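quick one before i forget lol
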Amino acid sequence: MTDQTAQTIPQEAQFGDYFALLKPRVMSLVVFTALVGLLVAPGTVHPYIAFVSILCIAVGAGASGALNMWWDADIDAVMRRTKRRPIPSGRVAPDEALGIGLALSGFSVILLGLAANWLAAAILAFTIFFYAVIYSMWLKRSTPQNIVIGGAAGAFPPLLGWACATGAVSLEAWLMFALIFMWTPPHFWALALFVKTDYGDAGIPMLTETHGRRATRNHILAYTLLLVPVSLGLALTSIGGPVYLATALVLNVLFLKGAWAIWRRSEEVAEADSYRTEKQVFKLSLTYLFLHFGALLAEAALRPWGLGGW
């Protein structure tokens, strides 16, 4: 049997294939930001309720990922970076992915309502709906603003964590939401610049395809400038403090420097060095978000010792 023939025969799905449906890398960021939202919220939460709450949020995020992969199987098969996913590669049937996504959605929402509160459960249900339906089924294929509006789906986790802990939402929770919401466009547009024609080949109206790469560079700089006051604004709230402020100042200088470097580049220069700057800024953006929430967590840990906060 030739290698080419072997590749055309569907492979039996393994546990790892079903786990991949849940987009574990995305899930890890969701879990981390939700956990920070829960831990920095005022008051105390029983460890068991906290554990079950984060588990439900993780399962809900995985459900969203499975539903997204089910709907996007056709375009995933076209794009280089997604064609090896479980459905386009033939290892998992689309109906299986749909069933898993729906089952996990119902399980996570109901259990979160019973374990924490029904406000948190309602926010989780809306988050799953927003990502699977509003973003995946509508925005992603219909408008270059897909990432801008759709970024709300990834911004809900800290709001969710806060709601699990308090049964309400507040300014601090909304500012954590806004931090991720404003961070998402420059993060994804940096990725879109160096994956080149992937989105265009799949028929996705990413900004790089509809308005051009120069416009995308302009947008990255503009959204990074808008991100800075949101980031610094969190430092002035009850969950901020000197550790967070110092961290945010350094990270914003680095991110602004990266966005400026992207803005200055021509396509000829960028292509000649294999979009090295764009890749570096994309990686920096991940560190940017992680360290912001890590600093919030540090402030919460220091506060009982009289060292955190203002």
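fyi Residues 120 and 163 are 5 Å apart (CA to CA).
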